[in-house]
């Protein structure tokens, strides 16, 4: 990913605002730029913009929205900020946390009022670490629906979206970005000038070399995000002298059905399930969180584990489409008792049965186990027992380019590059440097909030 000198370069066409990447961050930046009357061009490498956004549940955390007020939910940006910092152990940049938690609610209301996205708040499931019901989504609760709605809105607002246009290089004129070079599927190249450039091409989860460098514990993990997210923003930013932070931060997941590659909801664990390895033994405090559990699972023999739960929990999990698909594909194994389940899974019978008995005793006696897990508030598992063979996966990275309050990319000394902006996974997020710092929704939070700020700021140039 190169950055070249713009001297002597002739651009085929120029736009005041160019956005690299047509996921949630890019399309929202385009909407905000259009609202400020700027001509905007979104460059997207795929034939249809989808990104990791379309793979996600499309759920966006916001505190103090009108949907919450209508549902009688008491919440605020400050409470959301405090939950984020609790999870990140105060390692997220407080100014950035404040910026995005204050911006995201108004951004959702703007998307609803101005662009017709029918958000509502999820008020029957509180995400771990959220002090209030604050996840907002479109009716199907899917990222695909969010992307469809954003694509339609951006087109209706007059944003140009050029697909099959992979940005392969940036041109610099001193400190300014003068334009970009794109490559088309037939290998031809075009040069496009810009007044301002918004990097919305997410993080580096799809780039094995960068994952190995920054998150070695997940070097061999299944990547569950969009493969086109190759870390281009970080590489260009670094070449331009920008600061990056928390590149080791990420969202992992310790319960992805293997070999089916289907997400098994973490409710299987929070409702009282647990995980064993190929020896039929538990290996961790699963209740810490799904993100950090990815590396724990990958450390087990074969990088595999089995998530164990019961029929009651399966019923809760069945509200998620992914789980229903896992069942349809035969990923969920059911047996009447521990020994017959062990036989079906190929686990050592006696050891697995002892583990099931031990968990039952921990629940009955209210004891904390040797890993530090307390099963308080969870019921005993009732037969038949259910199991899914799982592995650990990387969902998306959370480190990235540092930005200021206008979403302008900054240098290590805090000064801003004059016309370069970053949003979504391209920018450093609010999860800190560890996987345990990821609070549900942190991904789309910065895509929506920084996307709008970046588009508005870029248009103002
Ligand atoms: C399975 C899964 C579930 C998730 N669930 C949630 C959730 O419920 N809530 C939440 O907050 N977060 C969730 N996330 C995280 C969330 O999806 C991301 O944080 C968010 O989508 C990032 O948005 P983005 O616009 O920055 O990136 P993307 O949506 O990935 O968009 C980036 C776009 O840039 C394009 N691109 C990349 N490089 C180039 C280039 N050189 N030239 C042109 N185009 C380029 C890509 O093709 C892509 O379309 C989930 C992630 C996964 C994988």
Task: Give your account of this protein's structure.
With 461 residues, this protein is α/β, with parallel strands linked by helices. It has two domains: 2-249 and 398-460, 3-Layer(bba) Sandwich (FAD/NAD(P)-binding domain), CATH 3.50.50.60; 252-394, Alpha-Beta Complex (Flavocytochrome C3, Chain A, domain 1), CATH 3.90.700.10. Helices cover 34% and strands 23% of the residues. Strands 1, 2, 3, 7, 8, 9, 10, 20 and 21 form a nine-stranded mixed beta sheet that branches. Strands 11, 13, 14, 15, 16, 17 and 18 form a seven-stranded mixed beta sheet that branches. Strands 4-6-5 form a three-stranded antiparallel beta sheet. Strand 2, helix 1 (24-35) and strand 3 form a beta-alpha-beta unit. The chain starts with a strand and ends with a helix. It binds flavin-adenine dinucleotide. Flavin-adenine dinucleotide is lined by residues 20-26, 43-46, 49-53, 55-57, 59, 166-167, 200-202, 224-226, 228-230, 232, 395-396, 424-425, 441, 443-445, 447. Flavin-adenine dinucleotide (FAD) is lined by residues 20-26, 43-46, 49-53, 55-57, 59, 166-167, 200-202, 224-226, 228-230, 232, 395-396, 424-425, 441, 443-445, 447.
The separation of the N and C termini measures 26 Å
Spans of at least 5 consecutive residues with low confidence: none
- The second-level CATH architecture of the largest domain is 3-Layer(bba) Sandwich
* CATH-derived topology of the largest domain: FAD/NAD(P)-binding domain
**Full CATH superfamily name of the largest domain:** FAD/NAD(P)-binding domain
| CATH class call of the largest domain | Alpha Beta
Structural class: alpha/beta
Q: Are any ligands bound, and if so which?
A: flavin-adenine dinucleotide
Total E-strand runs: 21
What is the overall pLDDT average?
Answer: 96
> Proportion of β residues?
15-25%
Helix content: 25-40%
Principal-axis shape: elongated
Overall domain count: 2
Helix count, per DSSP?
A: 15
Tell me which oligomeric state these chains represent: single chain
- Characterize the biggest β-sheet: 9 strands, mixed
Radius of gyration: 23 Å
